[in-house]
Amino acid sequence: MDLNSSDIWYWSDSTIVISWLQMSPNNLKTFVANRVSNIQNITDVQRWRHVLSKDNPADIISRGLSVNELKNSRLWWSGPTWLSLSTEQWPVSNCEHELPVPEAKSVNFLSTKADYTIFERYSNLRRLQRIVAYSLRFIDNCRTKNNRHGDLTLEELKSSLVCLIKLAQRQIFGKEINSLKNKQDVRNSKLKSLDPFLDENGILRVGGRLKNANIDFSQKHPIILPQHQLTNLIIKQKHLECLPAGVQTLLGIIRQEFWPINAKNTIKKMFVIHSD
User: What is the distance between the alpha carbons of residues 224 and 221, in angstroms, rounded to a whole number?
Assistant: First the structure.
């Protein structure tokens, strides 16, 4: 059977999902953004409509009913009565633009003045991450009734890297970050060509370079890394993880997640490695 994609409509009884699909993934949490981006790439978002739960055939199963009730259910076999009418006669989808805030922990530095010397004290990214992660755990334990102890979790290590990246970006790109927070452009910045934006964690990312590409959000919008000691540590760690990669291979691996400024020259200066 040949189906014309223009005749396909998509339905959800979740107003939240409909709202997400109408938004730019840039404004969503990474987990949701990746999935919304995939849906937007393979469907026409203008053809997503809201259906009330009482008109949703899938919903009657979740409410529970007998085999006989299911067998005799017109909604299950044929859908809501209005579905057979012309699209002009379908109920109007009237979803307010809403985005609930998922449970997330915001991490803030207690000091009003950032201590950038921390980057010069360590030559190993993993050690630096652990030091910061244990510090953040201590702060959290003091602020709340939590009493976490033992080995660090992967989530704690990720949070520590986020804090370090924000600190490094603030040190080098503080003016750009303030401009973006105030809805101002960065036309006089060397980052202008990257169309930078701040994600939900306040991290600078590359903007519209690959916005229509069918890839994960983090690959579409890699984190911008300044010419900085933290960037050197990240590159060094990636190099150790993918030995014996050459310059181009290493650069490709790094750019799946990060966008270091002047990356190729930085890599060549840091390592004596062959060209691919």
Answer: 9
